[in-house]
Amino acid sequence: MSLIYQPKIPKAKSIKFIENFFIKKKLGYLLKLSKKQKPPVNQMQIKEPYLPELTDLYRLYQFIILNKRITIFEFGSGWSSLIFNLALKELKDKFYKEVKFLRRNNPFEIFIIENEKKFLNITKKRISEFNKHQKIKNAVKIFYHHSEAEMTNFNNKICTQYKKLPLCNPDFIYLDGPDQFKIKGNINGISTRHKDMMPMVCDILKLEYFYTPGTIIVCDGRSANAKFLKDNFKRKWYYVHDHKSDQHVFCLQDPLLGKYNKLQIKFYNKK
Fold this sequence. Notes:
CATH architecture: 3-Layer(aba) Sandwich
Number of strands: 9
CATH topology: Rossmann fold
Helix content: 25-40%
Distance between the termini: 23 Å
Structural class: alpha/beta
Strand content: 15-25%
Number of domains: 1
Shape: globular
Mean pLDDT: 93
Low-confidence stretches: none
CATH class: Alpha Beta
Radius of gyration: 18 Å
């Protein structure tokens, strides 16, 4: 496939390098948190926020910086939200004037959707305290949206969807929610609330034809859901699975949509 935009994939770094990165970013307290004992995989009831995974967080930061993302839509919330806030602020300080000419209506803004109010509020407080402590001026705008998620059908396949989505057209989507055990309803008796089932979000598929070429999607694990997306996409997508990080990366490769999309790709590629 001839790519209209080649997504830049972060290079692997040693844990020592990554720890020093977070120390330099004044996030050294994450090192201690990351070493705490983690809950069992597939535990149904998560009462406390997930602990930070430093390597994953570093990769997400690099995805945003290397690919010069402008608008982020995050399914789920957590430490990743804080890292997106950090990375997008750095890009805003550097490229705000350039992006003004790309006709993007939500430049340097983050949209977060979460089906658990508790964790959404924790994320909101965490970012607010970080910005205050670091005396961040002209911070990026973050829109926090709570919505229940429910069982549904897509192309006659059973899956899940949020009941209400925020209105935006991002150029970076991070899929790490909703919690499969907090999904409402069932379809023909089927629900993701069973431990042997897995997350199966379809919201991205429903919005596929709104995305502009160059849009990147990163799925955190969720291999079955990534396969579901890959099999049901109708447009041309570049796809790679990084087995070591267990991240699935998609990048829209359709023909450019016009003048401003062309300028957008030119901005992404500018060194």
